[in-house]
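Example record

Each entry pairs one chain with its bound ligand, pyridoxal-5'-phosphate.
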Amino acid sequence: MHPIEMVDLKRQHLAIRKELNAAYEEVMDTAGFINGPSVNKFATELGQYLGAHVVPCANGTDALQICLMSLNLKPGAKVLVPAFTYVATAEVAALLGYELVFADVDPDDFNLSAQEVAKAFEQHPDIQVVVPVHLFGQMAPMEPILELAKAQGAYVVEDMAQAIGAHYSHNGIQGMAGTLGHISATSFFPSKNLGCMGDGGAMISSDKQRAALAKTIANHGQGKQYVHEEVGVNSRLDGLQAAFLSVKLKQLDKYIARRQEAAGFYDESLGQIDGLITPVRRPYSTHVYHQYTLKWERGNRDELLKHLAEKGIPAKVYYPIPLYKQKAYQASTFAPKALPVSEALVGKVFSLPMHTELDQEQLHYICDTLIGWCKRH
Ligand SMILES: Cc1ncc(COP(=O)(O)O)c(C=O)c1O
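Structure tokens for the complex follow.
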């Protein structure tokens, strides 16, 4: 059996090695390392795939920051983020001098729920931005979130770093992850569903003007060279990464299908084990399984992880501490006393290996090992 990895990029890249090498050579030949033709080409291709405007940048964290900068908010503006997510979502708001409002998440799908967003607006009617994170690859309930934000005159910035290729459809609102809010941020970190060979990210918007502003901000705030209309940043996707991403974008739907197949196998095998809760699938969103995240409800999750590790099965906890409990965010003005769902989830969740190269032998071994342990405990 091949060793089991959390993400197996070596084997993924082996299958497209020729094309990746050709992409590398083309960039070498043209020396288009910064803002070369490969960057525009990839932005156009991803734009066509998503049905929106795409502005590449250096990484997903920058993308979130530039999205927020493009909204022209005043210092102290309130930004609503889920407490159970990757730190980048909150970090950029704090960095820009905005005030974070942390909301709890849905215990079943781990995303911001309409109920929690409504509750946050009741307590803070002056929230100016809501940032739903489509966590683990399934979209947050965008239709009610957009409604609630609209009623309050707030912006919606999607963090779609884990959900590229997911599709939403509910009550007449439909589209790909990243195309429904005012502006969205994604990451091409290597382990992402569409990952490059280093760092990369992008802003996405259905609104041409917003995308143009994001592009200006990402380029030192200059529309024309040496004419600075905004205070910007320097955040560029490099030419090599863009060329690799064009190669991998062609594979994205196949990659998603493979992740969904592996998730289907996990669902079938693990769905009936007492105390083990497999991921919920929502009818309004496809799930692209950036992570396959379960809950262990009958005891010590960390013992389970230790056993898997001893058996050569990597498994990880995304995320072990709610953001408002992190030292860096404890002083945030609106850090709540307790958000019970997030606090319970951090002790229960764990993610199994999930990638495009998982084979039947590995899947059987992972499930048999996990089921054996659960039955003994
Ligand atoms: C939900 C989420 N947001 C933002 C980011 C930040 O992306 P990056 O690591 O490219 O800065 C990540 C990825 O690590 C993420 O998972």
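Residues 252-270 form the longest helix (19 residues).
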